[in-house]
Amino acid sequence: MVATVAGIRVESLASSGLESIPKEYVRPQEELTSIGNVFEEEKKEEGPQVPTVDLKDLVAEDKEVRERCREALKKAATEWGVMHLVNHGIPDELMERVKAAGEGFFNQPVEEKEKYANDHDSGNIQGYGSKLANNASGQLEWEDYFFHLVFPEDKRDMSIWPKTLSDYIPATSEYAKQLRGLATKVLSALSLGLGLEEGRLEKEVGGMEELHLQMKINYYPKCPQPELALGVEAHTDVSALTFILHNMVPGLQLFYEGKWVTAKCVPNSIIMHIGDTVEILSNRKYKSILHRGLVNKEKVRISWAVFCEPPKEKIILQPLPETVTEEEPPLFPPRTFAQHIQHKLFRKTQVLGGK
């Protein structure tokens, strides 16, 4: 069934001049009613908006000022599980270099990018790829991507980092290092928000040695029928935290209080999601929000997502004892990170397979 588009990159489909998208990319009927024009959606001022958290005071000398900043972060993590971070400490110039490097990769001809193609069949997901149908309906997403581990430095596979783009390795390496520092600051504040010791959450997700940062550059080509497709289908992130940059083209939507809310484009911000891992450890005091990506006819959208992931087998993820009471029993069974991923994939396949 998927043979008609198997092996074809979405970028190649998009540039072939087709006027209607292959059926594998058309979303199920019940989803189509909620897909609108993303540019119109982003302009809406009424209704809930993704919170913006200013991190400038997270390291202020004044204790009260620090606590106000931590409270704002805790509130956004509790109510939404996603936020725009501003004054996060990562230089604008470095973020622009990262974006230029990633755009440079995707601006190469498809045959050049194919030299970095990943091989799902052999279990190697690092590299250049497109979504493979992993459900019974053969559903595909309107995106190509480039995926690789960026931190810790000794775990990187440099053979798949683009060598022809002079700034790709320096810019991405420096950004990963600075994001790792930001993750520590955020995890410290979130730990204190749960009444835990400052370093507790970081320790529970693997610490400096074992928390892995995986970068996925998502490339969403222009789509001739954006009202029928999704760049990324609705999901929650399995990570502890996810940090996202984008090229200021709207597309991210969050499922909040029963409705899809489109995230605004906030200059120089980093979008941060609380992932399933922190949701589990906090016994859902912090939320991992359902989100998806829309596409459009006019502009290519690119986003740079960095997933901070705990080790696959070494840690048992379960609600921390301090987050559990008789009134609030544990909401999640103990699982390794690998088991949690399998549980999500299996459950999703079961649900979709039944339609």
From TrEMBL:
Pfam families assigned to the protein according to its UniProt record, in alphabetical order = 2OG-FeII_Oxy, DIOX_N
Q: Supply the alphabetized keyword list.
A: Dioxygenase, Flavonoid biosynthesis, Iron, Metal-binding, Oxidoreductase, Vitamin C
Query: Which cofactors must be present for this protein to function?
Result: L-ascorbate
The Fe2OG dioxygenase domain covers: 211-310
User: What terms describe the molecular function in GO for this protein?
Assistant: dioxygenase activity; L-ascorbic acid binding; metal ion binding; oxidoreductase activity, acting on paired donors, with incorporation or reduction of molecular oxygen
Q: Which InterPro entries match?
A: DIOX_N (IPR026992), IPNS-like_FE2OG_OXY (IPR044861), IPNS-like_sf (IPR027443), Oxoglu/Fe-dep_dioxygenase_dom (IPR005123), Plant_2OG-oxidoreductases (IPR050295)
| Keyword Ion transport on entry | no
Cite the PROSITE patterns for this sequence: FE2OG_OXY
Q: Biological process (GO) annotations?
A: flavonoid biosynthetic process; pigment biosynthetic process
To which protein family does this belong? Belongs to the iron/ascorbate-dependent oxidoreductase family.
Spell out the protein name for this chain. Anthocyanidin synthase
Look up and give the organism this protein is from: Camellia sinensis (Tea plant)
Task: Write the lineage as a comma-separated list.
Answer: Eukaryota, Viridiplantae, Streptophyta, Embryophyta, Tracheophyta
Give the gene that encodes this protein.
Answer: ANS
